[in-house]
Amino acid sequence: MEVLIYLIPIALVLGGAGLVAFLWSLRSGQYDDMEGPKWRILDDGDLQENSAPVEAAKQKAS
Amino acid sequence: MSAPERDWAAFVTNTEDGKAHMDLAVDGITCAACMYEIERGLQKLDGVEKARVNLSSHRLSVDWDEAKTNPSPIVDLLRRLGYKAYPFDPAQVKLRGDAIGKEILRSLAVSGFAAMNIMLLSISVWSGNASDIDHETRAFFHWISALIALPTVAYSGRIFFRSAYTAIRTHRLNMDVPITIGVLLATTLSLWQTIQEAKHAYFDSAVMLLFFLLVGRYFDHLMRRKTRSFAENLATLKAESAAKILQDGNTQEVPLSKLAVGDRVLVKAGERISVDGRICNGESEVDQSLVTGETLLQAVRLGDLVYAGTMNTYGVLEIEVTAAAKGTLLDEVNKLLETAMEGRSSYVQIADRASQLYAPVVHAAALLTLIGWIMLGMAWQPALVIAISVLIITCPCALGLAIPAVQVVASGLFFNERVLLNAGDAIERLASVDTIVFDKTGTLTLPEASLSESHGLSTEDLILAGRLALSSSHPLSQAIARATGAQQVLVDVKELAGRGVEAQIDGNIVRLGAPSFCDVSDEQLAHAKQTHPDASFVAFQLEDKPAQLLPVGQFLREGAVETIKELQTAGYQLEILSGDHTGAVEHVADRLQVSAWQAGLKPQDKIDHIEVLKAKGRKVLMVGDGLNDAPSLAAATVSISPVSAVHVSQAAADAVFLGDSLAPVQSALKISRKARWVMNQNLAISVIYNVLAVPFAVLGFVTPLVAALAMSGSSIIVTLNAVRLRMIAGKATPITPEA
After folding, report:
1. Which of A28, B291, B322, B409 pairs with B262 at a CA distance of 20 to 30 A?
2. How far apart, in whole angstroms, are the C-alpha atoms of residue B312 and residue B473?
3. Rounded CA gap, B364 and B394, in Å?
4. Which residues pair with B142 in a beta bridge?
5. Is residue B176 annotated as a catalytic residue, yes or no?
6. ipTM score of the complex?
7. Cα–Cα distance measured from residue B124 to residue B105, given in angstroms and rounded to the nearest whole number
8. Per-residue pLDDT tens digits for B449-505
């Protein structure tokens, strides 16, 4: 059972890392808008016109 | 229309990295495509560093380089794209970024983390107690639990401790008092047990209790935040600014917070007056319907007082800003409002009422348990442990969730019916209502003047009248222009201030304006006034033909007759209290078949009447919009304002309804009754759970395992029951297509 002496603190530190990550995401405003981000991933407007994936897609389409 | 020169500096703040920053409320964002369009459009502007739309709150945050650009092109671009945008006044949005919500969420995260880890250890201890855990391991586990629990209770419990402290200091008892006692006792007892190396510790119960209660608090907060951010956007989009007259005679648009007493502002014809003040130049007629409920226009001239929220009709006014001087309407309203607000705070929320009954009973039960066991010959230490376990198991966990969970579900339903809640406990107060008092102007009637259906003009003439009306800034003309949908302005129109407009078409003279301007006989006017006692008249004259009178006025809201009828059938007592003149009120009361009505009331009269009703034991719902309604909105048991109401009234009301229809008032009452029913069920569930659990605790059978199971079980049942409200309410009120 002595192994618990290391295992429990390790488990706590891992859990604590999750907590810290959450608090950081909260502080950096990632929960301010719960609607927008799910749509932003569908927006291709940030791709350069001549970038490889766009060109490839255009060639495929034509 | 070009935007007047604005004092942007008042809206701009600086970011940490030296960029200029502005937050704007944007109207017209409907979907994600709008978000891309705005962001991409703005980022193409030279000097704009960052533009980000918040799709949930419909706000835009822009950062730019002050050396390269200024806010004007940003707002211009938004207008070109078809969005109405107006910056937030940083002085008015003090709580940026939702500080309270973040505090609750942080506490929730910490208690959630702690609850999970302590539970992990507790379950090992419980299973070990049943099999073969040794003393050292159990003590080790308890000590680790203590190390996690103590800081968590101190951190996550602050919200409850603070509230309980304030309650006790003001000699009240709210729900947070038994919660605080329960949590603190559970923690202290567990710490003591840990030091004694006893078998049981209740750290898991204490922390889990905090976790569940914080979930309830967060629900509660989410509901309020939604309404608040909506209301702030609305207030900002109304662009409450004023044209300040500078020393050199130029004018500059400034937000209201930048005006001081003694400043002079310019109000053009057809503009809403945004300050309270004394006229120091010019004369005009003002529409005071939003302030006093009076629908007739009132002539004002040099030295007269005008109030924020009134509409200037034809003249240009120069107004000196005054604070609410003694004896004015505004002063009276403010004083009454203050008193009424104090009266309202005496209302005790259902949850607090429950805990006022609950806490003494539970605490007495715990005390009796302690005394009973000692008298039966038990040592005081184990007796105290049992007594405290009674307090732990009766700590109002389900009670803490019972009401907020229902409030959140109900506020979602309210939102579908276009009603926004200002106060969470408004639901339970709405459910108790038996009498409804309506204001007339702007509440039963539409807030803006419109052209009556029975105007008697041919379609061609009507369009002509509309085109003519476009040239005038008088509110009555604007109502005609809106009603006809006219777009093209006639050329060569002469406007005669205070009288009307005149144009020549193919050699014919066309006139639109005051009845006297178009040679309307007194008999014709008197006759028209009889048919439309609630209207003002604009005369229209084509060539030499006899002039025709167009009734323009604040007519009944859409569906008002039906709504009133249904409310009467549902058994509510209806009354109309108005500041308007008798004829207009009588006409409306007749149309709606409401027999109890009073006209020409002052704010104090309205309050007095409501107090009389309340003294008779009636629960009064006040529906009103004007400045004169604000005190009675606060004095009534519960109140609702239309979204077009003046700011003071909206702030005093418990709920705000959107749109031109009166139907949301009725839906709100329906939903609140169902919500109240579910709240009562939830309270009953919490009480039954305690009735079952307390005997076990008194007999000393409650181990931490039993406490944890009972607590989470009851919380989950209560939450699920709240969700059921969506199903019951959804069945009875069909979802309207516009929702």
Report:
1. B291
2. 10
3. 12
4. none
5. no
6. 0.78
7. 29
8. 778 777 777 777 888 888 888 877 777 887 888 777 777 777 777 777 777 888 887
